[in-house]
Amino acid sequence: MDPKLKTVLTAMVVVVLTAIYVVGLFLLWDILNVEKSLDDLLATDLYAAEYSPDSSTSVSVTFDGKAVNETEESLLREFFVYWYAGLGAKKAEKIARFYTVQTSYELFDELALDYEVSLAQSCPMDLSFDSCSLTLNVRRRHAVPKTEKVEIDLELSGQINYRSMKAPAVIRGEMHSFVLNVSGKALRIEEHTTDRPSARFAGYGLDKVLAANRLSRNDLNYTFFPKYTAPALQMLREESAAAVLETPDRSLYPAAEYEYNRSAAANSAIKGFANSGAFGEYEENDANFLSRCLFESGIPMDSQGSVTDQWKWYDDEINTERKKTGCSRSWFDRTAFYRYIRDNEGFGLAACQTASGGGEIGDIVQLMYEGEPTAQFMITGIIADSRGSVMDYLVSNDKYASVSLKTLGCTDLRVLHIVGYNTANI
């Protein structure tokens, strides 16, 4: 090769490699600067000495169950006071101060709280409240060996005294799990998960946005999480605003020999059952609970037909093994209950699916996601406009009583209208 050409080629290679090296340094510098900026922001905002939940909302928190130490109790108390003070004022509060640095659980909790506040703001009735009382029943406390972490599972119960409602909304068994960690000298939250419906649907919304970008939550770190939570919140708000409760065609309702005692069923759903007795609990205990409410209202169990088209907890005797003469799947499974409602024509429940705005007190609402019911409630109150059009429902199940359906976060509903029951195979 010509020496001059070789020299030129060598120089070009050196220039290209140098350019790549310099560009790489600049990119690395930008990344480090972004992370440093985030760290600086967190250091400034996260550990503020003072915090000010809305002073117009009184939130009382008491502890029960397995003991937690004073520091853990203080952190969890302040967390729930802050959360519910924000809900009471219908104002989303930043909760970063309770978390360790750079945890995606903090950002997801802010998404869930922002979403629930926006639902309350758009609700047809005023869902601000002056006071609420909460009890945190600690079910499990586990200090993780060889770490400065502790895992705490608790059950939240209480009541919320809304300004626009005569009776309080009741929470009776909402589950929360925390991982607490000593960050520096302070105890902070590292992880938080809950079965709260609004948080679940906020998660579904985030997953939709991530799936559209061919991602999942496992693909994200703290730095890139906010890029997707903001559009997820916007999408959730738009879906909620577009949700309309449609008017039913009542001419399609089936006939029944005996009327349904709606008020008796609704009272059972609101008050709950002090003792579950032989009825037990299941994974989908909302379906089990509401089946019991229907039974307590006077609707007889249906032990006729094959095992797939019965609705009963027992036949001639209690049977906890779920054999053919024992509990039917439709008693405790949401999908099986819907199929029974849809297909039953003879003895037993007379019911049908109706439009989302066709629910009456005592009817069943299933919250749907991608064609599957994720929760089940009984309508125990109706919010209507001056023309009688349904704007919202108050709903109850095993974990909640008299809560606004709209604040649960679901925009896809399946409403099951209970007409009554038959005692003959008609």
Describe this structure in words.
The chain is α+β, with helices and mostly antiparallel strands. It folds into 2 domains: 58-242, Nuclear Transport Factor 2, Chain: A (Roll), CATH 3.10.450; 250-422. Helix content is 35%, strand content 26%. The protein has helices at residues 3-45, 70-88, 104-122, 197-212, 226-242, 262-271, 285-296, 329-332, 334-343; strands spanning 58-65, 129-143, 149-162, 169-183, 186-194, 258-259, 348-354, 364-369, 372-384, 390-396, 400-401, 403-404, 413-422. Strands 6, 7, 8, 9, 10, 12 and 13 form a 7-stranded antiparallel beta sheet that branches. Strands 1, 2, 3, 4, 5 and 11 form a 6-stranded mixed beta sheet that branches. 35% of the residues are buried.
Reconstruct the topology from this structure.
Elements: H1 3-45, E1 58-65, H2 70-88, H3 104-122, E2 129-143, E3 149-162, E4 169-183, E5 186-194, H4 197-212, H5 226-242, E6 258-259, H6 262-271, H7 285-296, H8 329-332, H9 334-343, E7 348-354, E8 364-369, E9 372-384, E10 390-396, E11 400-401, E12 403-404, E13 413-422
Parallel strand pairs: 1-2
Antiparallel strand pairs: 2-3, 3-4, 4-5, 4-11, 6-13, 7-13, 8-9, 8-13, 9-10, 10-12
Helix pairs in contact: 3-4, 3-5, 4-5, 6-7
Number of alpha- plus pi-helical segments = 9
In percent, how helical is the residue content?
Answer: 25-40%
Low-confidence stretches: 34-50
The H/E string reads HEHHEEEEHHEHHHHEEEEEEE
Please report which band the strand proportion falls in: under 5%, 5-15%, 15-25%, 25-35%, 35-45% or over 45%: 25-35%
Number of strands: 13
The CATH topology label of the largest domain is: Nuclear Transport Factor 2, Chain: A
What's the overall geometry? globular
- Summed up, the domain count is 2
Oligomer kind? single chain
| Average pLDDT score | 85
CATH architecture of the largest domain: Roll
Radius of gyration: 27 Å
